[in-house]
Structures
1.
Amino acid sequence: MKLFRMIQKYDFSLYELQLYLDTHPNCTHALRMWNNLQNMRKKAVSSYVQQFGPIRPDQTDSSAPWSWVQGPWPWEKEAN
């Protein structure tokens, strides 16, 4: 749960930075922050997928794309 919350925080921060960079495209500080957060998010997502399974269908190695959810959904009691 803690790792998933961290991914959500990265997503929020990246979205806010995206909006800022849309209006301030030459801000090197914001761009460095964007790149740093992108890398941190990628690592967190990779770790989450290894431990708990895919968050999105494109993160599966399955040959059948819609069989990616085999266990309980995160909000179901069995998942926690």
2.
Amino acid sequence: MGLDLLGGGPAWWWLGLMAVGGASAVYGILQAAMASDLKRLLAYSTSENMGLVLIGVGASGLFAAYGDKPLAALALAAALLHVVNHAAFKALLFCAAGSVLRATGVRDLDQLGGLRARMPATAGLFALAALGAVALPPGNGFISEWLLLQLLIHGLQVPGVAVAVVLPLSVALIALSAGIAAAVFVKALGVGFFARPRSRPAGEAKEAPPLMLAGMGLLAVACGALALVPGLLGDGLDRAVGATGLPGSAAVSGGGLRVRLIEVSATLSPLWVVSALTAALILAVGLPRLYQRRRRRVNVRLWDCGGGAPSPRMAYTATSFAEPLQRVFDDVLAPEQDVNVTPVRESVYLVERVRFQHRVPDRIEHRLYEPVLRALAGTGQAARRLAGGSVHLYLGYGFVGLVVVLVMLAVGW
């Protein structure tokens, strides 16, 4: 719309788009960090990823407004690549969440746990998709966020005060959202899959049927292909960017196993990155085990200070895991809590029960969407009065509409 149909636009258009994208990325991932509902967590993560896409699209228009069209083409290619990567790993995450819901009937992370042992295939597929969501190798989200950061950093060479101020802020927002995203999916995996089961449905969960696993396996293959051979999309991205009127020819190239950014002289091979990380992991795990085999091992019971084995109530829940982060962003999230103390009838000094409620509402949902929806519902209720069932009244509506159209045509509108 902005580059092709409208022929570009002033820089403030694109600055506004980048601001909306940055706010969406940070606010969405903060709400995901507070969510204990697994599917709600993933939905807010989508808001974060679409915010990153908007940052890329806004940067593309900003560079085009300042006359650097090759860098604008690269920014748009990064945004499109992240759309494709997000479609793969988020679809896998939602399918894995659906598998958990089918097996347990529960979406609340505080009521889950122990699923790694009972649903190992689902847990592994969820972990693979989570790597893409937090933009860590070998996740497929890594290459597109790396590309986005590359163009924002190299875009500082474009002259202009707005560019010099906005691009470092965008890099900081992307880094902040990526850090919080890591905490979000550590919470989802740790509390939902690796902790001890906190409810009977979680303790009795069974692995998904083969057909569901096959569907998730296809998505996992797509995630792996996008992560290891992202260069296969280079030609397609260049054609898509070129269709917008930007000279995107060969902005992203280099073959299937690596990605080369011609305008900023940067090259990345995700396959080599994954190979190096795998070798480092093997050394980190293998060397200590080799050293331990040479020593005599004695199995003894550890001293537990008399406390006994920990119970599920002693482990972190999704709510308690997110509480430190909630305290840091207290002013942004505006949490609500209520303590209701009920005394016994005989004496106000004796307490029968204490009820504590704590929640983090979505301020945008409650202050923006809900008033608009209420206004639309009220308008719809009021509009029912127009449908009185009178044919003469309906003919009058048509006549008035025709007169209004004729008047508008007469005055040249």
3.
Amino acid sequence: MKKCMDSANLHRRLKKIIGQVQAIDRMIDEDVPCEDILSQLNAAKSALNKCGQVVLEGHINHCIKDALESGDEEEIKNFTKAIERFANMQ
């Protein structure tokens, strides 16, 4: 699985998301207006969705490409599950 992902990119993105979530936690304690907290929550959600896109893109470019070339019907069938999971993130 690791070979199909840009792990450095994903780790960098996830560190930023962790920072965003920690900032949101602080905002709650600092009595920041609800609108500002919601805005930051939306930004964190969007960042997580982008991580999902990066993972899905790697899956398509590596795993699914290999499955198509080798005729691996099971992997191709599992691709539907991956798409459903990604769609549910939205």
4.
Amino acid sequence: MTNPTPLHNRHRTVLPDWIALYYKHPIELTHGEGRHVWDADGNRYLDFFGGILTTMTAHALPEVTKAVSEQAGRIIHSSTLYLNRPMIELAERVAALSGIPDARVFFTTSGTEANDTALLLATTYRRSNQILAMRNSYHGRSFSTVSITGNRGWSPTSLSPLQTYYVQGAVRTRGPLAHLDDAAFTAAAVADLEDVLGQARGGVAALIAEPIQGVGGFTSPPDGLYGAFREVLDRHGILWISDEVQTGWGRTGEHFWGWQAHAQNGPPDILTFAKGIGNGMSIGGVVARAEVMNCLDSNSISTFGGSPVTMAAGVANLAYLLEHDLQGNARRVGGLLLERLRGIAATVPAVREVRGRGLMAGLELTKPGTDEADPDAAAAVLEAAREGGLLLGKGGGYNTSVLRIAPPLSLTVAEAEEGAEILEQALRSI
């Protein structure tokens, strides 16, 4: 392997210390194709993390690269001050897919900015700075989104423009409710929500929740929990924001959006998205019913949100996703992969749990025979998997002991089996 120190030293000289790098010897990825990427030394890896769930369809997807190239040859930038055909086309498609009636769409450049915008809308609409958020959550790295992140590993300051109340229920297999069956778990979480609202001062603006927590380790509540929350929220006029930055676009296989597993009382008031829709291009956004979206009474634009180039990429990427039924592929191949991973886990004492849906799987590692998280083991497996030619992610609350698996949704059965074999060897190496 080429000595990575010179580039790593340059990185450390000009970039912040708090930018995390994977691996003891960080790698430089130079190109990709399909579900594979290559590093600067020519090593090929099967990519099971997709740039943090962002390369949704495939690396170097011809349809997307062609759309980007053609649009860049016409005009790269204009801002939202001018009519923008690709932005309108993508907004029309996202609004129709969102499930939100009379939907309006605002594009941003990231999931953080999308959630920041959702908080602006909710607090303005409700004239309140009080927000309900879930324990173990992650919603971004801006000042406002850090303040509603219920995960200390990603929340560097307690200063906040918002008053945040944290609610139980997002983590099914840990915590004081874990011993309950699904119905009792949901009832207890609803009771906790009612109790928290009893402590709030006046009207709360919104509940923000990830249907499946990403950074938190791909944890989720029983189906229907957020729908049950919705009954309580509606009685108080509180908005529901579904953070779909990681769960959207069919990744879970069973649903196009994560909120649809909790749909018994209708869609959310606000939906945020990012990551996969751009397939690597910087696209985020907010969908809300018109009454909420149009509540701002001051000027607002976006210089880079809705860029003609990124919108062209999004239109092409979404078309490919739908035309090739990648949601169905996530359900089929993801189901096989999860079954294979559970079979492996049954013979590896360090694996406490395999969880997830579709092509969104998490393996929680603990010290064998205990429920004590083992971040060192997770780090060791990450390294061993890379040595074997597989890239994974990490997460898991404040202890980063969960291996996160989220490959492009075009993953084949053969690639799923190859990845599972490499991961099994890595797990056994510890």
